[in-house]
Structure formats: C-alpha cells, structure tokens
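Now for a chain:

_____
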Amino acid sequence: MNLRWKNFLSTGQYFNEIYLEKYDRTLVSGENGAGKSTMLDALTYALYGKSFRGINIKGLINSVNEKDCVVEVEFVSGGYEYKVVRGMKPKIFEIYRDNELVDQDAKAVDYQQMLEDQILKMTYKAFCQVVILGSSNYTPFMKLTAGDRRKVVEDLLDINIFSLMNTILRSRLTTTKDRLMIIKGTINTLEAKIDGHERVIETLEKKKQESVDNHLDQIKDLESRRKDLENVVDNLCSKYKADNPASEREGLRSAVEQEERKLLKSEGIQTDLKKKINRIDKDAGFFKNNNHCPTCEQPIEETFKSKMTASYDKKKEKYENAIKDITKIVSEFETAIPRLFDQINDMQEDVQSFLSTEREIAGIDGTIKQCELMAESVSSYGEEYKNEIGFLKESMEKYQGIKEENDLLVIEKSDLDLIAALLKDGGIKTKIIRHYLPIMNNLINKFLSQMGLFCQFNLDEQFNETILSRHRDSFSYNNFSEGERLRIDLSFLFAWREIARLKNSVSCNLLILDEVFDSSLDNVGTEEFMKIIHSMGSKANVFIISHKADQISDSFRNHITFEKKGNFSNMKFIDRNDTD
C-alpha cells in the first residue's frame, strides 16, 4: 500500500512517495508550508476527488508547473490489489484491479460511486471519521448533524446499503405508482370503449332481429294472402270444372269459331242448292216452254218432255228438301253462336278475376322470395357489425393484458410497501444499530477511560448523546474543555475503527492524525494517547503529523520530514529502531 504524487500543491515534477504500511508508526514533521499535510489532500483527492482541507480543486495543481498533476494510491481490498490514478491537465481518472483497467464506460460520477460503494465501501464522511483526524478541516462526530452521524454509523456497520436500497426502492415505488395511475386511466378508457362497443353491438343485434322479425311477419302475411287467393282460384276452377276459367273461355271461343265455320259452310251449301234449283227451274222451263229444239228445230216428243220434266222436278224436290235441312241447321247455328257469346260474356268477369288473382299470387311469390333473401342477408350480420365485433375483441385483448399488468403491479406495490417498511430507519437498520449500540457505547467509554476522561457517555438510537460527569451531572459535548473534547473525538475515532474491524466491512489499517499533539492534549493525555497507539500494534499503520517532533520522535521508528526548497517540497526519511 503506497501513496505518491507529483505537481500536486507544492510538490514538483518528481513523485513523492510514501509506503503506507511499511511501518506501524510514522512521524511526519516539518515547518509550516513545507508540505507535510499534503499527503492528506493527496489521499482524499485520489480516493474521493476532493481536498481534505477544502482547497479548490483547480488550486491543487502546482502553481509553478501548472500541468501534469497526478496522484496515485495503491491498496488491497476484498483480496484484490487496486490502484487509483487521478490527475489534472490532462484529466485522469483510472481504476486498476490486479493491473487491469476497470471498465470506464460509465460516467465519471458513476465511476466514483462504484469506487466508493464496491471497492472502498466507505463514504468520504466515514473516511474522515475512521482514517483521518485533522486539525484543519476535520469535523468531529459530535459536531455532525443527526443525519450525518447516522450516515457515518451506517457506513461503519455496512448498513448504508439499506439506505441505498431504500432510495432505489422509493424510485421504483414511485415508478410503480405512476404506472398504476397510468394503467388505471387506460383501464377506465378501455372499459368505456368496451361498454360503447357492446352497446353498439347490442343495438345492431336488436335492429337485425327486428328487421328479421319484420321480414318474417311480412312473409307470414303474404303467405296468408296467397292462401286466400289460391282459394279464390280453386273456387273459380271448381265453378267451371276446368283448370281455370280462362282456359274454359278459350274453349268456348274455339267452339264459337267452330260453329261459325259450320254456319258459313252450311250457308254456302244452302246457296249452292239454291243455285242448283234455279238451274233446274231453267232447264225444266226449256222443256215446258219449247216443243221444238231451238238449235236443230226438230220436234220434242211429249213423252221425252214429260220424262225430262219429271226428272227435273224430282231433283228440285230433292234439293228443296236439302235446303230445308240446311236452313234448319243454319238456324240452329245462328241460335247456338249468340248463346256461346253470351256464355263468354258471362265468364269475362270471372276470367278477369282469375287472371288478376294469378298475377297477384305471382307477385306475392316474388315478394316472399325477396323477403326471404333480405331476412337471410340481415341474419348474416353486416360490415358495421363485424367491425364492431373486431373493435370489441381488440379492446378486450388490450384490457386483459393491461389488467394482468395492473394485478402484477398491485402485488409488486404491496411487496414494495412491505420492503419499504423494513428499510425505513425504524426497520432493519434500527435493529442492527440497536444490536451494536451497547458495543459502541462500551468502546467509547473504554477509550475515554484510557484517555483519562472519566465520564459516562451514551448514544441513543437517534445518536443523541447523554454524558454524565463524575458526579453524575448531565453534560453536553460543548460543556467540556478543548482538551477534553479532543479526548472524546479520539475516543470516537478509535471506537469507530474497532467497530469497523469487528464488522469487517470497512476495516482500514491506515490512521492519519494531523497535528493532534499540537493542539489541546496535555502531557497526560499525550501519554495515554500514545499508549493506545502502541496497543494497536500491527493492526494499524499510524501517521502522526506534528510540529512537536523533538518531543515525541523517540516513539516512532520511521520519521518523515518535509522541507521546502525554492518553490517545491522535498521529503526525507529517517528509519530508527523502536525505543519502546
């Protein structure tokens, strides 16, 4: 474990290097401004990126060279050898583990957080309570706020992870609550959509059923009307004993035409017979009116005349009888034809009724067919209905998915609320602190006693102190003298280091005390303090920075002196045997 730096504060271009674990006790001395406290700033800058004494970061660069400022620290943690390199002009921040560079993809702030949380396992405030006690910028534990006191103890007990978990948990709980609110709004929206789609579908189904029912009722009415018309047709057909009155009427028309043809034929025969009778009368008159042949002038015998006259008379009689028969037939035809026309005229109304009924029946059949097609078309759902069904299904699927997510988030929130209760200051951390608090108080009082300050010191769970003096009077930290307060501060320092060692989480074998002997410790306090330092043995590598080197140098086997030559600090090592 070693620390080295160059172009840092008053240090020049060449590295100053200190082996931090070579000696169990090291004295560091020098004139004011020689650079003896530089190691404190170098160490905190390398590990935490800030100065222990509160110097502005830019002010840490050597004002003469003004570039190539580098600080390196090597140490062992968790079985790994680490090296941290930090510098300015150029800017450097590198962490090596077993000589391999740790991934630098993260931002510088995350890289630093990783160094503190995973490697050092100690915040800056805890580091300044356990490793360094300085007169310049050191804030004693008793002067810290209650929150900072708790944070230091949590770091020592390695329970600050619960605070980190609680911070992460709050963020996650907030995210979960926000998501639940968003989901609730989404669920309300989807429920409204689903309700709307269902109402539209219900309306469409109702309209569809009403339309189907209307068509079916119309078909029923049409079929009833058709049945009535069929009865009318059947009655007309029965009346005329025919398939229908129209065909019967056509039959009568055909009969009339046939009778008319017969009448015409009879009348023609009648005319022909009359013509034949006229011819016979003419031929018979020739014989009656002539005795001689007009052509040959020969006499016509009376016997021949009588024979011929008798023959013509016989023919005439035959024709006259035929005319009588024909005349009778013609008379019958002339009587029958008007009668048939009268029948046709009588049937005309029934025929018209039959034909109109048949046409109405045909129209009803067409309307029934159309109604059946429309009913079938309506029952098969329309495009609007199918679209609404699709929208409803889509909304239901989204609702189911978001509802499942909501149920999981409700369970997650319940779990997070339970964990949050455990991670609160009154939860797990308080139980751990409650377990270690008696140990802390015992150690603090033990070191107070060893330092010659006999009082009863107790911290409660909120890290408020109760101090009882020798006479059991209640005191506060500020009631003590400066020397007594320093003893209390040192007692806390040693107690925290012991707690850290017992906990084995942030245990550190390095202790640096800056000008502790130069302030308020009297001779007795100094002796008791040195006894405690000696009692640490190899458990710690202690560095004492002091102006009183001549008074205490015999107690240290290693002595580092700083002196300033020109504008730069120089180090000198003095190694001697332990005089204990």
Remarks:
- The longest helix spans residues 160-240.
- The chain has twelve helices and 15 strands.
- Residues 1-122+509-521+542-580 form a domain with the Rossmann fold fold (CATH 3.40.50.300).
